[in-house]
Amino acid sequence: MNWSLFFGELVSGLTLGSIYALIALGYTMVYGILKLLNFAHGDVYMVGAFIGFFVLQWLGGALSPVVNGWIAVAIMFAVAMVGCGALGVGIERFAYRPLRNAPRIAPLISALGVSIFLQNSALLLWGPQFRSYDTFDLVGVKSYSIGNNFFISNIQILTISVSIGLTIVLALVVSRTRTGKAMRATSFDRDAAEMMGISIDRVISFTFFLGSALAAAGGVMFGLVFGQIFSLMGFTAGLKGFTAAVVGGIGSIPGAVLGGFLIGLTEAFATGYLPGGSVYANLYVFALLIVMFLIRPTGLLGSPVIQKV
Amino acid sequence: MKKVVVAATLAAALAVLATAAWGSTKGSSRVAAPANAGNALVKCGKTRSIGLMAPFTGPAASIGINQVHWANFYRNSYNRSHKTKIKFVNEDTMLGSANGTAEAVKGAQALGSNSSVLGVVGPAGSNEVKATTGALKGAGLGWVSGSATNTQITLDGTRTGFFFRTVPPDSSQSKSVSAYIVNNLKVKRVYIIDDQEAYSTGLADEVQAQLKAKGVTVGRDGVSQQQSDFSAIINKIPRNTQLVYLPWQLPPKGQAFGQQMKSLGRAGTKLMGSDGLFDPAFSGLGSNVYDSFFPLNPSDPRVAAFKKVHKATELFGAPSYVAAQVVTGAIDRACKNGTASRAEVRAQIKKTKIAASASLLGLAVAFDKHGDMVKKPFGIYHSVKGVFVRVA
């Protein structure tokens, strides 16, 4: 058994899965409340990555930032999350809210339209060239090892821990706060929640803010870990985030995180162990989606929808 | 009756599949030019149009802009010193983008249908050369690339007389690379990762075969050009690997790979790229980085003049200067009587003879029967303080 390979792929899978988990959380929260698949979510993640990049440039660039590298990273996260949170609220307000009472297909088409709009806006504004976060120059990437078989970098540690931390914060917001209670009530029965005096519009806007902020965090993480961002990066990441949400159980927050890690680990171990794995990693990921639908259509932690007849 | 319908449907489906399979084995490149393709005479006029196909935008824009700068550099110097002028009709191929070679094909069709265009410089990628063959050959256009190096695109016979290149093929590059790895770096364990494109897999196959023949242990893998996360494949590289060879086209990807190698504790492993990675993004990774690149005469005054206007590191596009020079010279000779056809321009491209003393490449430019340069050496470069310096 090649333990070096095993642990290497484990760490890679968890790192990638952390990013997918953050994207999946946005999908699952919006679906839980609105029963809408927000296909623009992957592009919000892309916008977050670019906001992080431009904040870094504004701070002086990776080579000579005006603040300490780690403080710069924190500022990048904060600005990207707030910026994309606002973007998510705006998207909900103008693209989805007017269609709330329309047939389900209408907001779905609108979501696709927003996705294409964001992609092409990014292409127009920022061009198709790759932008580099230059993480090495910014924070100095260090690799740590345990024995001869386990290696992990400081950026990978950051990514996994930030992802878990944000998930815990989200879980606390949803379970321990008044707004979280309102979110759960809206998700359970929107009409009843409205009759109980909950402002549905504000709850939905807050949900979009949270989900988009998490996607932005994922985007900045992607730039820090993998170095390169580009205008079209949101499409595939969004698909995989959606896959993670479905595999974990759409509408379930722990399910989204579990699904994200599962997708990341599938990609990594497929690359490491399966024939043509690095080229066909996406094939294995989406095959997992199909298998999940066949075995457990509600996902790993999803619950079947009961309809009163 | 039902059985008859089912049988007929199955037979039709089988016929469609068989036709598709037969068509795919033939390949899109086996396009015979129409008999009168490119024979139409065009009045030459004072300004002559040349198509310029390059990745102005897209993931490979960094090398594409190099090529455009060099081609424009040639155009500007020609126009200053001649009564006749040349102008480029630009087509952006967006090499490396998610929609593959579709943009290159569109651009080729546009150039083919523009009757004032007499020849083409580009495209950059070997895959693009293959994809655009139908459109360019069908329009009777000759085209000269300054960077498409896949060995087979001149040897397979589908473009003979139409396609030429001012850069040595991968068969030369692979020989130079494998010889340097074995004789100079004295490396015994190499891992090759291609990016699944024709240029990359062809070059990777050749280097792999040559290294194995010389007793080197070679691992092989592939990534997609759209991929950004290389950590999983880096983990797969055995820890005792001494050199990783990346015959890739996109310098940002090469840079990302090198950075991820470092972050995973593999900074000591040497990296070697191919001519597609001859870019500051790759050389900036550190002193364990090597690259192969086509020849250039560094003491040529034109190189110094170019460096005054553009960055000193933009040498990737220099063969595109020569490509523009070849096409322009061919048009001038074909236009001697005031009119020219695309077929005449192609014939003149074939007869190109630029003496070594006049050539930017430091060697004579002439084409063999396949469209390759007669002389085709490749140099090896080592990154010294972030800049590639020739070492072999």
Short description:
The complex is a heterodimer of chains A (309) and B (392). Chain A has 309 residues and is mainly alpha-helical.
- Quaternary organisation of the protein chains: heterodimer
**What is the highest CATH level, the class of chain A?**
Mainly Alpha
Mean pLDDT of chain B: 88
CATH topology of the largest domain in chain B: Rossmann fold
Whole-number mean pLDDT of chain A: 89
User: What's the number of domains of chain A?
Assistant: 1
- The SS-based structural class of chain B is alpha/beta
Compute the number of helices of chain A.
12
The largest sheet of chain B is: 7 strands, mixed
Strand proportion of chain B, as a percent range, falls in 15-25%
CATH class of the largest domain in chain B: Alpha Beta
| SSE pattern of chain B | HEEHEHEHEHEHEHEHEHEHEHHEHEEEE
How many beta-strand elements of chain A? Answer: 4
CATH superfamily of the largest domain in chain B: Response regulator
- Largest sheet geometry of chain A: 2 strands, antiparallel
> Mind telling me which CATH architecture of chain A this is?
Orthogonal Bundle
Distance between the termini of chain A: 55 Å
Terminal Cα span of chain B? 75 Å
What this model shows, in words?
The complex is a heterodimer of chains A (309) and B (392). Chain A has 309 residues and is mostly helical. Chain A is 72% helix and 4% strand. Chain A has a two-stranded antiparallel sheet. In chain A, strand 2 and strand 3 (150-153) form a beta hairpin. In chain A, helix 2 (41-58) runs antiparallel to helix 3 (69-96), helix 7 (178-188) packs across helix 9 (200-226) and helix 10 (233-248) packs across helix 11 (253-273). With 392 residues, chain B is an alpha/beta fold. Helices cover 42% and strands 18% of the residues of chain B. In chain B, the strands form 4 sheets. Chain B has a 7-stranded mixed β-sheet with strand order 8-7-9-10-11-15-16. A 5-stranded parallel β-sheet of chain B has the order 3-2-4-5-6. Chain B has a two-stranded antiparallel ribbon with strand order 1-12. In chain B, strand 2, helix 2 (61-81) and strand 3 (85-92) form a beta-alpha-beta unit.
